[in-house]
């Protein structure tokens, strides 16, 4: 069995400028004066990398709000087709009235009229929606109140976006500029205010930051809260278990698991006890939901002309997800070098989305922070983002086509199927390059300067105690090794070189 002695990984590495490592970043920097100079010192300005990332995230979020202005001013209130042709649809104003917030109903406790008897969102998201309704004026027309409700939610979601950007910038201590991938992501600006997903994403990003700082209890508490806002964050416990098993850090995993269970129960238990029917609505709705937009299941039903039974789709989705997780487990335990936590986190969340019976346009928000940590390369990130932007436009043009009556203005079914395929392939492409980095760790840009796993916390620098197959034992990192790798990656000559 390999030794459990930790690898010595220096923590005082300099900040990595992306313009020195990435050709796309270097080319893009020409818009603001070109790549950073060799002798530049980051301490000469108050605009630290984290502050710049936060400001850029605010700017992009504001641009996304501007993109929604046609709907804010009139399209949300003048029929369905207009909000689709302007690609500015949002659930937020419609659910203000449709889920009883305009009437002062209490989520999970008060029944709604119509088929949807209770709010179909997890408890913490329901609380977020309710708090936003408290700050919405109670007088004026319903249109004005819906506008204000969206604006209040947008302000709260902007705070979430800034938290995400700051947490991603600080997770990799020496690579804060990688968070610009997230801050400048066009899909973030376009989808941020469609729904309330950014709440769960912010809690997950904060949890990843806590794990990178070696605080498993705080990580677990935040992941439990994120799971109380959206189901997918709990999936990160699977890759973490595999990595902790391989590194012999199961105690830390147990602490994280305990924190997750505690915080999730703390939020959910009161509603479970006093409003059980309202509480379980989210879970029954997820099970009973038909095949919906963005999934390959929808392509199958549209191409064959046959509807699929919900139970059948649920079963096959589960089977495919289990197979994907088995593959990720084999990758985690048999890779030549232990994968980074962010890499496996991205893969498991992507697998969940790809096999799900719905792939809504805002689900891309789940992946953007993980992608920035797992594969901080501008070329691959932008290819994926281009696919997501095309899908964002495709789904609204398709809905415009289906709601425009005989005029048929928009994208027909075949075109929408192509848009679905494009964004599925874009996600698969990013998964493929992440898997390649795991199998060929020497190509992993994050590790070029001698890093092991900057987002790995207690896993960073730990030796393996359990591997499968002929997985190679990680080499020890010394100050000389890190210094030499930095010279190569920064374009510097070693002493004595001509």
From TrEMBL:
Pfam families linked to this entry: GT87
Keyword Lyase: no
GO cellular component, one term: plasma membrane
Highest rank taxon of the organism: Bacteria
Membrane spanning stretches: 48-66, 148-169, 181-211, 217-243, 255-275, 315-334, 381-403, 415-435
Keywords of the record: Cell membrane, Membrane, Transferase, Transmembrane, Transmembrane helix
Membrane topology field: Multi-pass membrane protein
GO molecular function, one term: hexosyltransferase activity
Keyword Translocase: no
Subcellular location: Cell membrane
Protein family per UniProt: Belongs to the glycosyltransferase 87 family.
Protein's name according to its UniProt entry: DUF2029 domain-containing protein
Originating organism: Streptomyces niveus (Streptomyces spheroides)
């Amino acid at each position: 069995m390999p030794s459990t002695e930790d690898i010595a990984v220096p923590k005082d590495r300099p900040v990595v400028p992306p313009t020195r490592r990435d050709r796309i970043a270097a080319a893009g920097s020409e818009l603001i004066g070109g790549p950073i100079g060799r002798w530049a010192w980051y301490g000469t300005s108050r605009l630290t990398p984290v502050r710049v990332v936060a400001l850029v995230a605010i700017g992009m979020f504001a641009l996304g709000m501007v993109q929604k202005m046609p709907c804010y001013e009139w399209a949300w209130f003048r029929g369905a087709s207009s909000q689709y042709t302007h690609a500015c649809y949002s659930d937020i104003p419609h659910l203000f009235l449709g889920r009883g917030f305009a009437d002062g109903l209490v989520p999970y406790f008060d029944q709604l009229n119509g088929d949807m008897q209770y709010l179909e969102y997890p408890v913490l998201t329901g609380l977020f929606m309710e708090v936003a309704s408290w700050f919405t004026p109670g007088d004026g027309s319903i249109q004005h109140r819906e506008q204000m409700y969206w604006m209040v939610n947008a302000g709260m979601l902007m705070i979430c976006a800034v938290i995400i950007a700051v947490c991603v910038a600080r997770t990799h201590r020496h690579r804060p500029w990688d968070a610009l991938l997230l801050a400048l992501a066009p899909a973030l600006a376009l989808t941020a205010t469609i729904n309330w997903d950014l709440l769960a994403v912010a809690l997950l990003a904060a949890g990843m930051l806590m794990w990178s700082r070696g605080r498993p209890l705080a990580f677990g508490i935040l992941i439990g809260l994120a799971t109380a806002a959206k189901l997918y964050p709990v999936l990160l416990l699977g890759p973490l278990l595999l990595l902790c098993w391989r590194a012999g850090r199961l105690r830390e995993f147990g602490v994280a698991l305990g924190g997750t269970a505690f915080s999730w129960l703390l939020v959910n238990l009161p509603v479970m006890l006093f409003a059980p029917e309202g509480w379980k609505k989210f879970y029954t709705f997820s099970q009973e939901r038909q095949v919906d937009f963005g999934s390959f299941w929808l392509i199958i039903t549209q191409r064959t002309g046959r509807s699929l039974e919900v139970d059948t789709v649920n079963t096959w989705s589960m089977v495919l997800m289990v197979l994907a997780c088995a593959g990720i487990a084999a990758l985690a335990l048999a890779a030549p070098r232990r994968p980074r936590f962010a890499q496996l986190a991205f893969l498991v969340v992507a697998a969940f989305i790809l096999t799900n019976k719905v792939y809504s346009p805002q689900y891309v928000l789940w992946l953007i922070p993980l992608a920035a940590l797992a594969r901080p390369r501008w070329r691959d990130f932008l290819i994926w983002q281009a696919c997501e932007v095309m899908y964002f436009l495709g789904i609204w043009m398709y809905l415009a086509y289906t709601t425009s009556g005989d005029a048929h203005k928009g994208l027909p079914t075949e075109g929408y199927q192509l848009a679905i395929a494009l964004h599925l392939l874009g996600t698969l492409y990013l998964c493929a390059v992440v898997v390649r980095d795991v199998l060929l760790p020497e190509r992993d840009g994050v590790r070029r300067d001698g890093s092991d796993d900057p987002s790995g916390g207690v896993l960073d620098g730990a030796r393996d105690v359990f591997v499968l197959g002929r997985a190679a034992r990680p080499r020890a990192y010394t100050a000389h090794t890190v210094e030499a790798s930095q010279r190569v990656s920064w374009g510097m000559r070693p002493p004595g070189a001509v």
